[in-house]
Amino acid sequence: MYQNNEIPKEKAFDQSIQLIKEGYSFIANRRQELNSNIFESRLLGQKAYCLAGSEAARLFYDESKFKRAGVAPLPIEKTLFGEGGVQGLDDEAHKHRKALFMSLWTEDALSELRQLTQHHYAKASEKWQESKSIILYDEVKIVLTRVICEWTGVPLEEDEVEDRAEQLSEMYEKAGYVGLGHFKGWVARSRAEDWISELVEAIRNSELQVDEQRPIYKFCWHRDENGELLDVETVAVEILNLLRPTVANAVWITFAGLAVHDYPQEVEEVRNGGSQKLLYFCQEIRRFYPFFPFTVAQVRHHFEWNGCIFEEGTLTLLDLYGTNHHPDEWEDPEVFNPARFEKTEITPFNFIPQGGGGYESGHRCAGEWMTLTIVEESVDLLINQLDYKIPDQDLSYDLSDIPALPRSKVKMTDIRLR
Ligand code: HEM
């Protein structure tokens, strides 16, 4: 596969426009053409390596070979991540900050998250019963904004819920856009950072009292590896690293609505199969449907791997969606089949919807358990607690849109609580 000790190269100029056009399929299209899980391309005016599959993922998550500081393209930093957050740290600074996130997921905290999700869905469902129709994606964003603000200890007035839900979602909805769309994402981040920064200052000045067990309190008083308090903006960025991606779960929950509509046999399995079948269904949603196309790092130092030379400083993309759909990793990857999780051996490198590798030291998503908890509760609601109709609508989605979503965002009518 890797002949002449060279990484196969695309014979083309800068591919940034193609990346925007091809979206989730960009790396897979070239991987197939070049018959290689590693190839060289040109993106954003520079050389870039593209990696796919579990073997390449294992390499990508070797921290002695790749680093993250200063890697995220500016437009992504300005919308999705924010500046100074855990995503762009390396080594000791990263481990220390990541430990703060990982300390949040106690059994009690996750169980409270589950209860809050159930509670806010129950309240919303009562309202949905009185509406002629709802758009699942829009409603779930609002429910999850309520859930995550309560869970983190961020005060939220009733009259600001919709506005905050919009701000939080624009940060991930617009991250892949260019032009005006991207500008909206930028504005949303800036407004959200102002909102949270004010709260952080008020907590630090004792003008606002919050429960010491809440993440917002812990983040406000967290000290870095040198014993210093984080600056207010960085605390705001990290709190938004809890709020924004939780609301982003609305994307997969909307796809869950599509899956429930498209795969009635699998739904029957969940109805009759208890919590294990529910888990498999949710895992297959995370594998099958798109969300994060790829993640990025940079070669730390020159190194050689399987005869290929990796040059220091080169931008490197790991194909997350493509690895979850890779035919060498998954049998019939384009078939929605939750039962595959009964027999497929899952490793930190073959199933990587939220990144791979380790949680504590690597950059794997800090919110995977939260996501599973929320997606499980959502699928349970859709399958076991609600009756509803899905009228004629455009449920198709386009793999060139990042993030992709069913076009109608899943319209539901005649909603009844069972
Ligand atoms: C829709 C659900 C989610 C998806 C698709 C997702 C996806 C991802 C991906 C792809 C990464 C980067 C992995 C890498 O670069 O190696 C990541 C990192 C991260 N995610 Fe998530 N995520 C989700 C939900 C969450 C939630 C609910 C939280 C927290 C409440 C969260 C917090 C984080 C944090 C803090 C990082 C940075 C970790 C680090 O750099 O060490 N995510 N996520």
Automatic annotation (TrEMBL):
GO terms for biological process: sterol metabolic process. Keywords: Heme, Iron, Metal-binding, Monooxygenase, Oxidoreductase. Heme binds at C365. One of its GO terms (molecular function) is monooxygenase activity. Its cofactor is heme. InterPro entries: Cyt_P450, Cyt_P450_E_grp-I, Cyt_P450_sf. Pfam families: p450. It comes from the Bacteria. Belongs to the cytochrome P450 family. This is Cytochrome P450. It comes from Aliidiomarina minuta.
